[in-house]
Write a structure and sequence with these properties.
The chain has 3 helices and 2 strands; from the N terminus they run αβαβα. The protein is an alpha+beta fold. It is elongated, with a radius of gyration of 12 Å.
Length: 69
């Protein structure tokens, strides 16, 4: 899984996605960063998310990511 790939990363991880990571994937990114792995996440501009429910989920996962650092 993607979380396993991040967990096994030695040097760097680059993620490009429409939405902010959350759940197990966010946890794996957080732990990788704490181990010294360069974890870079590139997400779409939330201004271009036009569906209301998708926007709500995106904002929620953004807050989770912010809290994790």
């Amino acid at each position: 899984s993607a979380s396993d790939l991040v967990s096994n990363a030695k040097k760097s991880v680059k993620v490009i996605t429409q939405f902010n990571p959350d759940g197990k994937f966010l946890e794996a990114l957080h732990h990788a960063h704490a181990r010294g792995v360069n974890a870079e996440v590139i997400v779409s501009n939330p201004d271009f998310i036009t569906e209301r429910l998708a926007w709500i989920f995106d904002r929620n996962s953004h807050l989770q990511m912010y809290r994790k650092g």
